[in-house]
Design brief:
Length: 91
């Protein structure tokens, strides 16, 4: 079986001993599931006005990504507030 670059890097990492077993796997999985559920839980609504061009661009990008456009908007906002998406410096 031929591995792609990422697969080769993972195999090399595993073989070099960079991975460790987790003592209580079920507990760890439950903890991460809860964190993911709380992160993805959408319990608040907002209304926002956008230009027709911006909305059309969002919808086009969402289609290209295979997402509903509201999910894309939510994802971009989440990335921004969590510090993973930052504004470029304008010079």
């Amino acid at each position: 079986m031929k591995l792609d670059k990422e697969g080769q890097e993972l195999l090399q990492s595993l073989e070099s001993g960079e991975w460790e077993s987790i003592d209580n796997l079920e507990s760890e999985i439950a903890e991460h599931r809860l964190a993911a559920k709380n992160t993805l839980k959408k319990d608040q609504r907002i209304n926002i006005r956008l230009s027709a061009n911006d909305l059309e661009s969002l919808k086009t990008n969402a289609v290209e990504l295979g997402l509903p456009y509201q999910t894309l908007v939510s994802s971009v906002l989440h990335q921004y507030v969590s510090g993973k998406l930052v504004q470029k410096s304008i010079r």
